[in-house]
Amino acid sequence: MMNKLDNKHILKALLRGWGVILLLPFLLLSFTACNNDDDSTTQWRLDNTAKYNEIKADPEWKELKTDNVEGPSGVFYKNITEKEVIPGEHPLQTAAVTINYTGKDYTGTVFDAGTNATFKVNGVVRGFSIALQNMVVGEKWEICIPYYLGYGTTVTGTIKAYSTLFFEIELLKIDQYPK
């Protein structure tokens, strides 16, 4: 009886050892794939940072200010409105807005677009919300949002981590809440 028990333990130990040996190539491949992703993510982050810094240095782009003590927002914009706009109210954070928009990454690849789309101002990424709160109905802006005011360090759909976001936004309508 003792020999059978010892043999079972030996067999289990051997199988465990072989299991590790058989899994080793897969573990190495997984580790290599992770390292490649880290390299490509690092390059993506560097490229996005370079593009954002280029925008910051371009005098055609203006930095939006926030109403709180944070000071400059980090969001840059160009007013590309083609018609005269009557000054009016800005959407509150609690407002719903109707807009036309196109979202792109720094390479110009479109990741989202909408026509007559309605959103809550506080229901979008922080940088987009900051821009909307500074617009008036009829304005059309191109905005640049740094990754930390966009989707941050996480992958969201087709948007990679550390993505600098570019949007073209036309504000069509504001429904203020509360009125």
How would you sum up this structure in a few lines?
With 179 residues, the chain is α+β, with helices and mostly antiparallel strands. Helix content is 35%, strand content 27%.
Describe this structure in words.
The model is unreliable at 26-36 (pLDDT under 50). The N and C termini lie far apart (84 Å). A six-stranded antiparallel beta sheet has the order 1-2-5-6-3-4, sandwiched between helices. The protein is 35% helix and 27% strand. The protein has 179 residues and is α+β, with helices and mostly antiparallel strands.
Averaged pLDDT, please?
A: 83
Strand portion, in percent? Answer: 25-35%
Work out the helicity level.
25-40%
Number of helical segments?
Answer: 2
> Uncertain runs with pLDDT below 50, 5 residues or more?
26-36
Quaternary state, please? Answer: single chain
Tell me the number of strands. Answer: 6
Order of helices and strands: HEEEEHEE
What are the defining features of this structure?
single chain; 179 residues; alpha+beta; six-stranded antiparallel beta sheet; 35% helix; 27% strand
List the helices and strands and how they pair.
Elements (H helix, E strand, L loop, with lengths): L1 H56 L4 E4 L6 E8 L16 E9 L5 E11 L5 H7 L7 E6 L19 E11 L4
Antiparallel strand pairs: 1-2, 2-5, 3-4, 3-6, 5-6
